[in-house]
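Lecture 7 notes: from sequence to structure.
We start with the chain below.
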Amino acid sequence: MAGRINDEDVKAVRDAVPIDAVVSEYLQLRNAGGGNLKGLCPFHDEKSPSFQVSPSKGLFHCFGCQEGGDTITFVMKIDHLSFSEAVERLAGQAGITLRYEEGGYNPSHQRGERIRLVEAHKIAAEWYAEQLATSPEADTGRVFLAERGFDQAAAVHFGVGYSPQGWDHLTRYLRGKGFTDKEILLSGLAQEGRRGPIDRFRGRLMWPIRDIGGEVVGFGARKLYEADNGPKYLNTPDTAIYRKSQVLYGIDLAKKEIAKTSRAVVVEGYTDVMACHLAGVTTAIATCGTAFGSDHIKILRRLLMDNGSARVIFTFDGDAAGQKAALRAFEDDQKFAAETYIAIAPDGMDPCDLRLAKGDEAVADLVEPRTPLFEFALRQIVVRYDLDTPAGRAAALDEAAPIVARIKNSGAQHEVAVQLAGMLGILDTQFVVKRVAQLARWARDRGGKGPAAPDRHQHGGQQYASAQPSAAPRGPALNLRNPVYATERELLKLALQRPELVSPAFDAYGIDEFTAPPYAAVRQAIMDAGGAEPGVADPQDYLVKVREAAPDDAVRAMVTELAVEAILLHKGVKGVDETYAGAQLVTVRRRAVERRIRDIQSQLTRLGSHGDPAQLAAVQNELWVLQQYDQALREHGAAAL
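Predicted C-alpha coordinates for the same chain:
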Protein backbone atom coordinates (compact mmCIF):
# COMPACT_ATOMS: atom_id res chain seq x y z
CA MET A 1 0.00 0.00 0.00
CA ALA A 2 1.21 3.55 -0.73
CA GLY A 3 1.91 5.80 2.25
CA ARG A 4 0.11 9.02 3.04
CA ILE A 5 1.03 12.06 0.96
CA ASN A 6 3.56 14.39 2.56
CA ASP A 7 1.77 17.29 4.30
CA GLU A 8 4.06 19.88 2.72
CA ASP A 9 3.19 18.56 -0.72
CA VAL A 10 -0.54 18.69 0.04
CA LYS A 11 -0.11 22.33 1.07
CA ALA A 12 1.94 23.00 -2.08
CA VAL A 13 -0.89 21.59 -4.21
CA ARG A 14 -3.49 23.75 -2.41
CA ASP A 15 -1.35 26.84 -2.94
CA ALA A 16 -0.46 26.06 -6.57
CA VAL A 17 -3.93 25.43 -8.01
CA PRO A 18 -6.36 28.40 -7.60
CA ILE A 19 -9.78 27.21 -6.53
CA ASP A 20 -11.59 29.53 -8.96
CA ALA A 21 -9.62 28.04 -11.88
CA VAL A 22 -10.65 24.52 -10.86
CA VAL A 23 -14.31 25.34 -10.17
CA SER A 24 -14.72 27.34 -13.39
CA GLU A 25 -13.92 24.16 -15.33
CA TYR A 26 -17.31 22.86 -14.18
CA LEU A 27 -19.57 25.91 -13.92
CA GLN A 28 -19.74 29.57 -14.82
CA LEU A 29 -18.65 31.96 -12.07
CA ARG A 30 -19.60 35.62 -11.75
CA ASN A 31 -18.60 38.41 -9.41
CA ALA A 32 -20.39 38.18 -6.06
CA GLY A 33 -18.74 41.19 -4.46
CA GLY A 34 -16.19 41.30 -1.68
CA GLY A 35 -13.68 39.39 -3.79
CA ASN A 36 -15.97 36.35 -3.99
CA LEU A 37 -17.45 34.61 -7.03
CA LYS A 38 -20.82 32.89 -7.38
CA GLY A 39 -22.46 30.30 -9.59
CA LEU A 40 -25.14 27.61 -9.70
CA CYS A 41 -24.25 24.83 -7.28
CA PRO A 42 -23.06 21.63 -9.00
CA PHE A 43 -24.16 19.53 -6.01
CA HIS A 44 -27.88 20.32 -5.97
CA ASP A 45 -30.52 21.85 -8.24
CA GLU A 46 -31.15 25.55 -7.77
CA LYS A 47 -32.47 28.42 -9.84
CA SER A 48 -30.47 31.29 -8.34
CA PRO A 49 -26.77 31.03 -7.49
CA SER A 50 -26.02 30.32 -3.82
CA PHE A 51 -22.66 28.65 -4.48
CA GLN A 52 -19.79 30.97 -3.59
CA VAL A 53 -16.05 30.71 -4.15
CA SER A 54 -13.45 32.72 -2.25
CA PRO A 55 -10.21 32.73 -4.30
CA SER A 56 -8.28 34.55 -1.57
CA LYS A 57 -9.13 31.88 1.01
CA GLY A 58 -9.11 28.89 -1.34
CA LEU A 59 -12.60 27.85 -0.19
CA PHE A 60 -16.07 27.26 -1.64
CA HIS A 61 -19.41 27.08 0.14
CA CYS A 62 -23.00 26.60 -0.99
CA PHE A 63 -25.50 28.48 1.15
CA GLY A 64 -28.23 26.21 -0.23
CA CYS A 65 -27.02 22.66 0.38
CA GLN A 66 -24.14 23.47 2.77
CA GLU A 67 -21.48 21.68 0.73
CA GLY A 68 -18.14 23.39 1.22
CA GLY A 69 -14.40 23.00 1.51
CA ASP A 70 -11.17 23.72 -0.30
CA THR A 71 -9.90 22.92 -3.79
CA ILE A 72 -9.16 19.32 -2.89
CA THR A 73 -12.62 18.83 -1.35
CA PHE A 74 -14.27 20.25 -4.48
CA VAL A 75 -12.43 17.83 -6.79
CA MET A 76 -13.22 14.94 -4.45
CA LYS A 77 -16.94 15.73 -4.45
CA ILE A 78 -17.40 16.69 -8.10
CA ASP A 79 -15.50 13.71 -9.53
CA HIS A 80 -16.10 11.20 -6.71
CA LEU A 81 -12.41 10.81 -5.87
CA SER A 82 -10.64 9.84 -2.70
CA PHE A 83 -8.46 12.43 -0.98
CA SER A 84 -5.25 11.01 -2.41
CA GLU A 85 -6.74 10.73 -5.91
CA ALA A 86 -7.83 14.38 -5.83
CA VAL A 87 -4.39 15.53 -4.63
CA GLU A 88 -2.71 13.41 -7.31
CA ARG A 89 -4.88 14.88 -10.04
CA LEU A 90 -4.27 18.47 -8.94
CA ALA A 91 -0.56 17.76 -8.48
CA GLY A 92 -0.41 16.49 -12.05
CA GLN A 93 -2.03 19.70 -13.30
CA ALA A 94 0.43 21.82 -11.31
CA GLY A 95 3.50 19.75 -12.21
CA ILE A 96 4.19 18.87 -8.56
CA THR A 97 5.89 15.56 -7.77
CA LEU A 98 4.37 14.09 -4.62
CA ARG A 99 6.26 12.42 -1.81
CA TYR A 100 4.75 9.68 0.33
CA GLU A 101 5.49 9.27 4.02
CA GLU A 102 5.89 5.49 4.09
CA GLY A 103 6.59 4.39 0.55
CA GLY A 104 8.79 7.02 -1.09
CA TYR A 105 7.51 7.96 -4.51
CA ASN A 106 4.19 6.37 -5.28
CA PRO A 107 4.43 3.72 -8.04
CA SER A 108 1.84 4.15 -10.78
CA HIS A 109 0.11 0.86 -10.02
CA GLN A 110 -0.66 2.06 -6.48
CA ARG A 111 -2.64 5.09 -7.58
CA GLY A 112 -6.39 5.35 -7.13
CA GLU A 113 -8.69 3.36 -9.38
CA ARG A 114 -10.36 6.36 -10.97
CA ILE A 115 -7.03 8.01 -11.76
CA ARG A 116 -5.85 4.77 -13.36
CA LEU A 117 -8.98 4.46 -15.51
CA VAL A 118 -8.63 8.06 -16.69
CA GLU A 119 -4.97 7.44 -17.50
CA ALA A 120 -5.90 4.33 -19.50
CA HIS A 121 -8.39 6.34 -21.53
CA LYS A 122 -5.92 9.14 -22.14
CA ILE A 123 -3.31 6.67 -23.43
CA ALA A 124 -5.93 4.84 -25.50
CA ALA A 125 -7.11 8.12 -27.08
CA GLU A 126 -3.55 9.03 -28.06
CA TRP A 127 -2.96 5.54 -29.46
CA TYR A 128 -6.21 5.53 -31.48
CA ALA A 129 -5.35 8.99 -32.89
CA GLU A 130 -1.90 7.79 -33.92
CA GLN A 131 -3.46 4.77 -35.67
CA LEU A 132 -5.76 7.05 -37.68
CA ALA A 133 -2.88 9.30 -38.69
CA THR A 134 -0.30 6.65 -39.62
CA SER A 135 -1.78 3.17 -40.04
CA PRO A 136 -2.42 1.94 -43.63
CA GLU A 137 -5.39 -0.03 -42.28
CA ALA A 138 -7.01 3.21 -41.12
CA ASP A 139 -7.40 4.46 -44.68
CA THR A 140 -11.06 3.40 -44.55
CA GLY A 141 -11.57 5.75 -41.60
CA ARG A 142 -9.71 8.61 -43.28
CA VAL A 143 -11.89 8.23 -46.37
CA PHE A 144 -15.05 8.18 -44.20
CA LEU A 145 -14.05 11.50 -42.61
CA ALA A 146 -12.97 13.08 -45.90
CA GLU A 147 -16.30 12.21 -47.52
CA ARG A 148 -17.98 14.16 -44.73
CA GLY A 149 -15.77 17.19 -45.11
CA PHE A 150 -13.26 16.52 -42.31
CA ASP A 151 -9.53 16.71 -43.01
CA GLN A 152 -6.63 15.55 -40.83
CA ALA A 153 -6.53 18.86 -38.96
CA ALA A 154 -10.19 18.43 -37.98
CA ALA A 155 -9.50 14.87 -36.82
CA VAL A 156 -6.62 16.11 -34.66
CA HIS A 157 -8.69 18.97 -33.20
CA PHE A 158 -11.41 16.57 -32.05
CA GLY A 159 -9.00 13.74 -31.21
CA VAL A 160 -10.66 11.30 -33.63
CA GLY A 161 -8.88 7.96 -33.89
CA TYR A 162 -9.08 4.47 -35.33
CA SER A 163 -9.24 1.07 -33.59
CA PRO A 164 -7.52 -1.72 -35.59
CA GLN A 165 -9.48 -4.83 -36.52
CA GLY A 166 -7.30 -7.25 -34.54
CA TRP A 167 -8.53 -8.84 -31.34
CA ASP A 168 -6.20 -7.36 -28.75
CA HIS A 169 -3.99 -4.61 -30.21
CA LEU A 170 -5.00 -2.00 -27.61
CA THR A 171 -5.05 -4.52 -24.76
CA ARG A 172 -1.45 -5.52 -25.44
CA TYR A 173 -0.42 -1.87 -25.76
CA LEU A 174 -1.98 -0.99 -22.38
CA ARG A 175 -0.33 -3.99 -20.74
CA GLY A 176 2.98 -2.64 -22.04
CA LYS A 177 2.17 0.65 -20.29
CA GLY A 178 1.80 -1.12 -16.94
CA PHE A 179 -1.97 -1.64 -16.79
CA THR A 180 -3.32 -4.88 -15.38
CA ASP A 181 -5.98 -6.96 -17.12
CA LYS A 182 -8.38 -6.04 -14.32
CA GLU A 183 -7.84 -2.31 -14.93
CA ILE A 184 -8.25 -2.72 -18.69
CA LEU A 185 -11.53 -4.59 -18.19
CA LEU A 186 -12.81 -2.11 -15.59
CA SER A 187 -12.10 0.76 -17.99
CA GLY A 188 -14.51 -0.66 -20.56
CA LEU A 189 -11.75 -0.60 -23.21
CA ALA A 190 -11.71 -4.40 -23.27
CA GLN A 191 -14.11 -7.23 -22.60
CA GLU A 192 -13.65 -10.84 -21.55
CA GLY A 193 -12.84 -13.20 -24.40
CA ARG A 194 -12.36 -16.96 -24.39
CA ARG A 195 -8.69 -16.64 -23.63
CA GLY A 196 -8.62 -13.39 -21.71
CA PRO A 197 -9.38 -9.72 -22.40
CA ILE A 198 -10.00 -8.61 -26.00
CA ASP A 199 -10.45 -5.10 -27.38
CA ARG A 200 -14.04 -3.83 -27.11
CA PHE A 201 -13.63 -1.58 -30.16
CA ARG A 202 -12.27 -3.13 -33.36
CA GLY A 203 -12.23 -1.72 -36.89
CA ARG A 204 -14.05 1.50 -35.97
CA LEU A 205 -13.63 5.27 -36.02
CA MET A 206 -13.16 6.44 -32.44
CA TRP A 207 -14.39 9.68 -30.89
CA PRO A 208 -13.00 10.37 -27.40
CA ILE A 209 -15.71 11.52 -25.01
CA ARG A 210 -14.45 13.98 -22.42
CA ASP A 211 -16.08 15.17 -19.25
CA ILE A 212 -16.55 18.86 -18.53
CA GLY A 213 -13.08 18.97 -16.98
CA GLY A 214 -11.48 17.74 -20.21
CA GLU A 215 -10.61 14.19 -19.11
CA VAL A 216 -11.25 11.35 -21.59
CA VAL A 217 -13.77 9.07 -19.85
CA GLY A 218 -15.16 7.02 -22.74
CA PHE A 219 -15.43 6.55 -26.50
CA GLY A 220 -18.03 6.58 -29.24
CA ALA A 221 -17.16 4.13 -32.03
CA ARG A 222 -18.58 4.20 -35.59
CA LYS A 223 -18.81 1.02 -37.66
CA LEU A 224 -16.81 1.09 -40.91
CA TYR A 225 -16.98 -2.45 -42.31
CA GLU A 226 -19.92 -4.55 -43.50
CA ALA A 227 -18.45 -7.60 -41.79
CA ASP A 228 -18.91 -5.85 -38.44
CA ASN A 229 -22.12 -7.30 -36.97
CA GLY A 230 -22.29 -4.76 -34.18
CA PRO A 231 -24.46 -1.63 -33.99
CA LYS A 232 -23.71 1.41 -36.16
CA TYR A 233 -22.48 3.29 -33.09
CA LEU A 234 -21.01 1.53 -30.07
CA ASN A 235 -20.33 3.42 -26.84
CA THR A 236 -18.26 2.67 -23.78
CA PRO A 237 -20.41 0.83 -21.22
CA ASP A 238 -21.11 2.48 -17.88
CA THR A 239 -17.97 2.41 -15.74
CA ALA A 240 -16.64 4.08 -12.60
CA ILE A 241 -15.80 7.16 -14.70
CA TYR A 242 -18.43 7.08 -17.47
CA ARG A 243 -22.21 7.38 -17.37
CA LYS A 244 -23.67 8.10 -20.78
CA SER A 245 -26.60 10.00 -19.25
CA GLN A 246 -24.16 12.36 -17.51
CA VAL A 247 -21.80 13.35 -20.32
CA LEU A 248 -22.14 15.59 -23.35
CA TYR A 249 -19.84 15.15 -26.33
CA GLY A 250 -17.98 18.37 -27.10
CA ILE A 251 -18.70 20.02 -23.73
CA ASP A 252 -14.97 20.42 -23.05
CA LEU A 253 -14.58 22.45 -26.26
CA ALA A 254 -17.88 24.32 -26.01
CA LYS A 255 -18.14 25.21 -22.32
CA LYS A 256 -16.34 28.56 -22.39
CA GLU A 257 -18.33 29.83 -25.36
CA ILE A 258 -21.59 28.53 -23.84
CA ALA A 259 -20.86 30.45 -20.65
CA LYS A 260 -19.76 33.56 -22.56
CA THR A 261 -22.72 33.71 -24.96
CA SER A 262 -25.40 32.10 -22.73
CA ARG A 263 -26.26 29.86 -25.64
CA ALA A 264 -25.99 26.13 -26.36
CA VAL A 265 -26.76 24.12 -29.49
CA VAL A 266 -27.73 20.47 -28.96
CA VAL A 267 -27.16 18.24 -32.01
CA GLU A 268 -27.57 14.50 -32.47
CA GLY A 269 -24.16 13.07 -33.37
CA TYR A 270 -20.39 13.39 -33.18
CA THR A 271 -20.00 14.47 -36.80
CA ASP A 272 -22.74 17.07 -36.28
CA VAL A 273 -20.73 18.57 -33.40
CA MET A 274 -17.64 18.63 -35.61
CA ALA A 275 -19.53 20.25 -38.49
CA CYS A 276 -20.99 22.94 -36.23
CA HIS A 277 -17.68 23.82 -34.60
CA LEU A 278 -15.88 23.99 -37.95
CA ALA A 279 -18.69 26.22 -39.22
CA GLY A 280 -18.16 28.61 -36.32
CA VAL A 281 -20.96 27.33 -34.08
CA THR A 282 -18.64 26.52 -31.19
CA THR A 283 -21.43 26.04 -28.64
CA ALA A 284 -22.51 22.72 -30.19
CA ILE A 285 -22.69 19.57 -28.06
CA ALA A 286 -24.33 16.15 -28.39
CA THR A 287 -25.55 13.33 -26.16
CA CYS A 288 -23.71 10.01 -26.30
CA GLY A 289 -26.10 7.31 -27.43
CA THR A 290 -28.97 8.37 -25.18
CA ALA A 291 -31.84 10.85 -25.15
CA PHE A 292 -31.26 14.37 -23.84
CA GLY A 293 -32.36 14.26 -20.21
CA SER A 294 -32.28 15.74 -16.72
CA ASP A 295 -28.60 15.10 -16.03
CA HIS A 296 -27.63 16.82 -19.28
CA ILE A 297 -29.76 19.80 -18.30
CA LYS A 298 -27.89 20.07 -14.98
CA ILE A 299 -24.58 20.33 -16.86
CA LEU A 300 -25.88 23.07 -19.15
CA ARG A 301 -27.62 25.06 -16.43
CA ARG A 302 -24.37 25.45 -14.51
CA LEU A 303 -22.83 27.03 -17.61
CA LEU A 304 -25.84 29.09 -18.69
CA MET A 305 -26.42 30.45 -15.16
CA ASP A 306 -30.17 30.52 -15.89
CA ASN A 307 -30.17 34.17 -16.90
CA GLY A 308 -33.17 35.46 -18.83
CA SER A 309 -31.30 35.79 -22.11
CA ALA A 310 -30.01 32.19 -22.20
CA ARG A 311 -30.92 30.11 -25.26
CA VAL A 312 -30.82 26.37 -25.90
CA ILE A 313 -31.36 25.32 -29.52
CA PHE A 314 -32.09 21.69 -30.35
CA THR A 315 -31.43 20.41 -33.87
CA PHE A 316 -33.28 17.23 -34.74
CA ASP A 317 -33.85 15.37 -37.97
CA GLY A 318 -37.22 16.11 -39.54
CA ASP A 319 -38.19 12.43 -39.58
CA ALA A 320 -40.45 10.71 -37.07
CA ALA A 321 -37.52 9.77 -34.82
CA GLY A 322 -36.33 13.37 -34.75
CA GLN A 323 -39.81 14.62 -33.90
CA LYS A 324 -40.04 12.07 -31.11
CA ALA A 325 -36.68 13.25 -29.75
CA ALA A 326 -37.91 16.84 -29.81
CA LEU A 327 -41.02 15.91 -27.83
CA ARG A 328 -38.87 14.10 -25.27
CA ALA A 329 -36.72 17.21 -24.93
CA PHE A 330 -39.84 19.31 -24.42
CA GLU A 331 -40.85 17.11 -21.48
CA ASP A 332 -37.82 18.48 -19.63
CA ASP A 333 -38.18 22.01 -21.00
CA GLN A 334 -39.44 23.45 -17.73
CA LYS A 335 -36.23 22.42 -15.95
CA PHE A 336 -34.49 25.19 -17.90
CA ALA A 337 -34.78 28.85 -17.08
CA ALA A 338 -33.36 29.36 -20.58
CA GLU A 339 -35.63 29.70 -23.59
CA THR A 340 -35.61 26.57 -25.74
CA TYR A 341 -35.91 26.42 -29.52
CA ILE A 342 -35.86 23.81 -32.25
CA ALA A 343 -34.09 24.01 -35.59
CA ILE A 344 -34.82 21.58 -38.42
CA ALA A 345 -32.75 21.87 -41.58
CA PRO A 346 -34.31 21.97 -45.07
CA ASP A 347 -34.95 18.48 -46.43
CA GLY A 348 -34.35 17.08 -42.94
CA MET A 349 -30.56 17.28 -43.28
CA ASP A 350 -28.44 17.15 -40.15
CA PRO A 351 -25.69 19.79 -39.65
CA CYS A 352 -23.00 17.50 -41.11
CA ASP A 353 -24.97 16.90 -44.34
CA LEU A 354 -26.00 20.56 -44.50
CA ARG A 355 -22.39 21.72 -44.28
CA LEU A 356 -21.42 19.39 -47.13
CA ALA A 357 -24.33 20.48 -49.30
CA LYS A 358 -24.52 24.21 -48.60
CA GLY A 359 -21.44 25.24 -46.63
CA ASP A 360 -20.62 26.75 -43.25
CA GLU A 361 -23.02 29.69 -43.54
CA ALA A 362 -25.98 27.36 -43.90
CA VAL A 363 -25.05 25.62 -40.64
CA ALA A 364 -24.65 28.93 -38.81
CA ASP A 365 -28.02 30.08 -40.17
CA LEU A 366 -29.70 26.81 -39.19
CA VAL A 367 -29.09 27.27 -35.49
CA GLU A 368 -30.43 30.81 -35.26
CA PRO A 369 -33.46 30.56 -32.90
CA ARG A 370 -36.72 30.55 -34.81
CA THR A 371 -39.29 28.11 -33.50
CA PRO A 372 -39.80 27.85 -29.72
CA LEU A 373 -39.70 24.21 -28.63
CA PHE A 374 -43.12 24.45 -26.97
CA GLU A 375 -44.64 25.67 -30.25
CA PHE A 376 -43.09 22.78 -32.17
CA ALA A 377 -44.27 20.25 -29.57
CA LEU A 378 -47.82 21.62 -29.64
CA ARG A 379 -47.93 21.60 -33.44
CA GLN A 380 -46.86 17.94 -33.43
CA ILE A 381 -49.90 17.20 -31.27
CA VAL A 382 -52.37 19.44 -33.06
CA VAL A 383 -51.51 18.14 -36.54
CA ARG A 384 -52.83 14.69 -35.63
CA TYR A 385 -56.40 15.94 -35.23
CA ASP A 386 -59.10 17.06 -37.65
CA LEU A 387 -59.43 20.70 -36.64
CA ASP A 388 -62.31 21.25 -39.05
CA THR A 389 -64.65 19.55 -36.60
CA PRO A 390 -65.64 20.58 -33.05
CA ALA A 391 -64.82 17.08 -31.81
CA GLY A 392 -61.33 17.25 -33.35
CA ARG A 393 -60.60 20.65 -31.82
CA ALA A 394 -61.86 19.47 -28.41
CA ALA A 395 -59.70 16.32 -28.56
CA ALA A 396 -56.60 18.31 -29.56
CA LEU A 397 -57.24 20.73 -26.69
CA ASP A 398 -57.56 17.83 -24.24
CA GLU A 399 -54.10 16.56 -25.21
CA ALA A 400 -52.33 19.90 -25.59
CA ALA A 401 -53.71 21.84 -22.62
CA PRO A 402 -51.96 19.72 -19.93
CA ILE A 403 -48.64 20.41 -21.66
CA VAL A 404 -49.20 24.16 -21.55
CA ALA A 405 -50.33 23.85 -17.91
CA ARG A 406 -46.86 22.53 -17.02
CA ILE A 407 -45.29 25.90 -17.87
CA LYS A 408 -44.35 27.32 -14.47
CA ASN A 409 -44.18 31.00 -15.36
CA SER A 410 -47.79 32.20 -15.21
CA GLY A 411 -47.23 34.99 -17.73
CA ALA A 412 -45.64 32.63 -20.25
CA GLN A 413 -48.36 30.07 -19.57
CA HIS A 414 -51.07 32.61 -20.42
CA GLU A 415 -49.28 33.64 -23.63
CA VAL A 416 -48.84 30.06 -24.83
CA ALA A 417 -52.49 29.29 -24.02
CA VAL A 418 -53.53 32.17 -26.28
CA GLN A 419 -51.27 30.79 -29.05
CA LEU A 420 -52.77 27.33 -28.57
CA ALA A 421 -56.25 28.75 -29.09
CA GLY A 422 -55.03 30.23 -32.38
CA MET A 423 -53.49 26.91 -33.50
CA LEU A 424 -56.74 25.09 -32.78
CA GLY A 425 -58.93 27.75 -34.35
CA ILE A 426 -60.93 28.23 -31.15
CA LEU A 427 -62.29 31.77 -31.21
CA ASP A 428 -63.08 31.88 -27.50
CA THR A 429 -59.48 32.46 -26.36
CA GLN A 430 -60.47 32.93 -22.72
CA PHE A 431 -62.02 29.46 -22.66
CA VAL A 432 -58.62 27.93 -23.54
CA VAL A 433 -56.78 30.19 -21.05
CA LYS A 434 -59.17 29.22 -18.24
CA ARG A 435 -58.92 25.54 -19.16
CA VAL A 436 -55.11 25.64 -18.96
CA ALA A 437 -55.17 27.60 -15.68
CA GLN A 438 -57.63 25.08 -14.21
CA LEU A 439 -55.39 22.14 -15.16
CA ALA A 440 -52.38 23.92 -13.69
CA ARG A 441 -54.28 24.50 -10.44
CA TRP A 442 -55.38 20.87 -10.27
CA ALA A 443 -51.79 19.74 -10.82
CA ARG A 444 -50.61 21.93 -7.96
CA ASP A 445 -53.39 20.66 -5.68
CA ARG A 446 -52.61 17.02 -6.47
CA GLY A 447 -48.98 17.63 -5.78
CA GLY A 448 -49.75 19.22 -2.43
CA LYS A 449 -47.10 21.28 -0.76
CA GLY A 450 -44.39 18.70 -1.37
CA PRO A 451 -41.56 17.94 1.02
CA ALA A 452 -40.80 20.56 3.60
CA ALA A 453 -38.13 22.99 2.48
CA PRO A 454 -34.97 23.31 4.55
CA ASP A 455 -35.21 25.73 7.46
CA ARG A 456 -34.16 29.05 6.00
CA HIS A 457 -33.02 32.14 7.80
CA GLN A 458 -32.93 35.71 6.65
CA HIS A 459 -29.56 37.42 6.91
CA GLY A 460 -28.92 40.74 5.28
CA GLY A 461 -31.55 40.12 2.64
CA GLN A 462 -29.99 36.78 1.62
CA GLN A 463 -31.71 33.49 2.36
CA TYR A 464 -29.84 30.30 2.94
CA ALA A 465 -30.37 26.99 4.67
CA SER A 466 -29.27 26.18 8.18
CA ALA A 467 -25.58 25.43 8.30
CA GLN A 468 -26.01 21.90 9.57
CA PRO A 469 -26.37 19.21 6.88
CA SER A 470 -29.59 17.24 7.00
CA ALA A 471 -27.70 14.08 7.93
CA ALA A 472 -26.32 15.72 11.07
CA PRO A 473 -28.35 16.11 14.26
CA ARG A 474 -30.04 19.50 14.24
CA GLY A 475 -30.23 21.83 17.22
CA PRO A 476 -32.39 24.93 17.63
CA ALA A 477 -32.53 27.01 14.45
CA LEU A 478 -30.23 30.03 14.37
CA ASN A 479 -32.42 33.12 14.24
CA LEU A 480 -30.05 35.64 12.70
CA ARG A 481 -32.45 38.49 13.36
CA ASN A 482 -31.36 38.00 16.96
CA PRO A 483 -28.67 40.71 17.33
CA VAL A 484 -26.68 38.55 19.75
CA TYR A 485 -26.31 35.72 17.23
CA ALA A 486 -25.71 38.16 14.38
CA THR A 487 -22.80 39.87 16.16
CA GLU A 488 -21.24 36.57 17.22
CA ARG A 489 -21.42 35.45 13.60
CA GLU A 490 -19.72 38.63 12.37
CA LEU A 491 -16.93 38.30 14.90
CA LEU A 492 -16.27 34.69 13.86
CA LYS A 493 -16.24 35.75 10.20
CA LEU A 494 -13.63 38.38 11.06
CA ALA A 495 -11.57 35.82 12.99
CA LEU A 496 -11.59 33.47 10.00
CA GLN A 497 -11.35 36.00 7.17
CA ARG A 498 -9.44 38.93 8.68
CA PRO A 499 -7.55 37.56 11.70
CA GLU A 500 -5.14 40.49 11.60
CA LEU A 501 -8.01 42.83 12.63
CA VAL A 502 -9.05 40.88 15.74
CA SER A 503 -5.75 39.37 16.93
CA PRO A 504 -4.50 38.91 19.57
CA ALA A 505 -7.62 39.99 21.50
CA PHE A 506 -9.88 37.34 19.95
CA ASP A 507 -7.75 34.46 21.23
CA ALA A 508 -8.54 35.53 24.82
CA TYR A 509 -12.28 35.07 24.25
CA GLY A 510 -13.82 32.07 25.98
CA ILE A 511 -16.06 29.47 24.40
CA ASP A 512 -18.90 30.62 26.66
CA GLU A 513 -18.82 34.10 25.12
CA PHE A 514 -20.56 32.59 22.07
CA THR A 515 -24.13 31.74 23.01
CA ALA A 516 -25.16 29.91 19.82
CA PRO A 517 -23.94 26.26 20.06
CA PRO A 518 -22.72 26.15 16.41
CA TYR A 519 -20.70 29.33 16.98
CA ALA A 520 -19.28 28.02 20.24
CA ALA A 521 -18.15 24.91 18.31
CA VAL A 522 -16.41 27.08 15.69
CA ARG A 523 -14.70 29.07 18.46
CA GLN A 524 -13.48 25.78 19.94
CA ALA A 525 -12.15 24.66 16.54
CA ILE A 526 -10.19 27.93 16.18
CA MET A 527 -8.78 27.42 19.66
CA ASP A 528 -7.85 23.78 18.91
CA ALA A 529 -6.12 24.90 15.70
CA GLY A 530 -3.82 27.20 17.68
CA GLY A 531 -5.87 30.38 17.71
CA ALA A 532 -6.52 33.13 15.17
CA GLU A 533 -3.17 34.90 15.47
CA PRO A 534 -1.27 32.36 13.26
CA GLY A 535 -3.75 33.23 10.51
CA VAL A 536 -2.14 36.64 10.14
CA ALA A 537 1.03 35.12 8.67
CA ASP A 538 -0.55 32.34 6.55
CA PRO A 539 -4.34 32.77 6.10
CA GLN A 540 -4.91 29.71 3.89
CA ASP A 541 -2.94 27.29 6.07
CA TYR A 542 -4.76 28.69 9.11
CA LEU A 543 -8.15 27.93 7.55
CA VAL A 544 -7.02 24.42 6.63
CA LYS A 545 -6.02 23.81 10.26
CA VAL A 546 -9.31 25.18 11.63
CA ARG A 547 -11.32 22.95 9.28
CA GLU A 548 -9.20 19.96 10.28
CA ALA A 549 -9.75 20.78 13.96
CA ALA A 550 -13.54 20.74 13.54
CA PRO A 551 -15.00 17.70 15.35
CA ASP A 552 -17.49 16.74 12.62
CA ASP A 553 -18.82 17.64 9.18
CA ALA A 554 -21.49 19.98 10.60
CA VAL A 555 -18.93 22.18 12.36
CA ARG A 556 -16.58 21.94 9.37
CA ALA A 557 -19.38 23.15 7.10
CA MET A 558 -20.05 26.07 9.44
CA VAL A 559 -16.36 27.02 9.42
CA THR A 560 -16.35 27.03 5.62
CA GLU A 561 -19.59 29.01 5.46
CA LEU A 562 -18.28 31.69 7.81
CA ALA A 563 -14.96 31.85 5.97
CA VAL A 564 -16.71 32.49 2.63
CA GLU A 565 -19.76 34.57 3.60
CA ALA A 566 -19.45 38.32 3.02
CA ILE A 567 -18.85 40.46 6.11
CA LEU A 568 -21.91 42.63 6.71
CA LEU A 569 -21.40 46.35 7.05
CA HIS A 570 -24.03 48.37 8.86
CA LYS A 571 -25.33 51.66 7.55
CA GLY A 572 -22.74 54.41 7.91
CA VAL A 573 -19.79 51.99 8.19
CA LYS A 574 -17.27 52.69 5.45
CA GLY A 575 -15.33 49.42 5.40
CA VAL A 576 -13.95 46.43 7.22
CA ASP A 577 -11.17 47.95 9.33
CA GLU A 578 -9.82 47.94 12.89
CA THR A 579 -12.62 50.23 14.05
CA TYR A 580 -15.31 47.91 12.71
CA ALA A 581 -13.55 44.81 14.07
CA GLY A 582 -13.10 46.52 17.46
CA ALA A 583 -16.82 47.26 17.61
CA GLN A 584 -17.66 43.56 17.11
CA LEU A 585 -15.11 42.49 19.73
CA VAL A 586 -16.51 44.97 22.23
CA THR A 587 -20.15 44.08 21.56
CA VAL A 588 -19.60 40.34 22.06
CA ARG A 589 -17.49 40.94 25.19
CA ARG A 590 -19.96 43.44 26.71
CA ARG A 591 -22.85 41.01 26.22
CA ALA A 592 -20.83 38.28 27.92
CA VAL A 593 -20.04 40.67 30.81
CA GLU A 594 -23.70 41.71 31.08
CA ARG A 595 -24.78 38.04 31.22
CA ARG A 596 -22.28 37.42 34.02
CA ILE A 597 -23.47 40.53 35.90
CA ARG A 598 -27.06 39.25 35.72
CA ASP A 599 -25.94 35.86 37.00
CA ILE A 600 -24.12 37.45 39.96
CA GLN A 601 -27.07 39.71 40.78
CA SER A 602 -29.29 36.62 40.80
CA GLN A 603 -26.78 34.89 43.07
CA LEU A 604 -26.81 37.84 45.46
CA THR A 605 -30.59 37.74 45.57
CA ARG A 606 -30.48 34.04 46.45
CA LEU A 607 -27.84 34.59 49.17
CA GLY A 608 -29.84 37.47 50.71
CA SER A 609 -28.80 39.07 53.96
CA HIS A 610 -28.31 35.73 55.72
CA GLY A 611 -25.55 34.40 53.51
CA ASP A 612 -21.97 33.77 54.55
CA PRO A 613 -20.33 37.23 54.92
CA ALA A 614 -17.10 36.14 53.23
CA GLN A 615 -19.00 34.68 50.27
CA LEU A 616 -21.19 37.77 50.01
CA ALA A 617 -18.12 40.00 49.98
CA ALA A 618 -16.45 37.94 47.25
CA VAL A 619 -19.54 37.98 45.06
CA GLN A 620 -20.09 41.72 45.60
CA ASN A 621 -16.44 42.36 44.74
CA GLU A 622 -16.75 40.38 41.51
CA LEU A 623 -19.90 42.32 40.63
CA TRP A 624 -18.10 45.66 41.23
CA VAL A 625 -15.13 44.59 39.05
CA LEU A 626 -17.42 43.51 36.21
CA GLN A 627 -19.44 46.73 36.39
CA GLN A 628 -16.23 48.76 36.20
CA TYR A 629 -15.04 46.67 33.25
CA ASP A 630 -18.39 47.14 31.48
CA GLN A 631 -18.14 50.91 32.00
CA ALA A 632 -14.59 50.94 30.59
CA LEU A 633 -15.72 49.00 27.50
CA ARG A 634 -18.61 51.42 27.07
CA GLU A 635 -16.37 54.49 27.35
CA HIS A 636 -13.11 53.35 25.73
CA GLY A 637 -14.20 50.58 23.33
CA ALA A 638 -11.56 48.12 22.06
CA ALA A 639 -8.83 49.93 23.98
CA ALA A 640 -10.31 48.51 27.21
CA LEU A 641 -10.12 44.91 26.06
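Points to note: The two ends are 53 Å apart (CA to CA). The chain has a mean pLDDT of 85.
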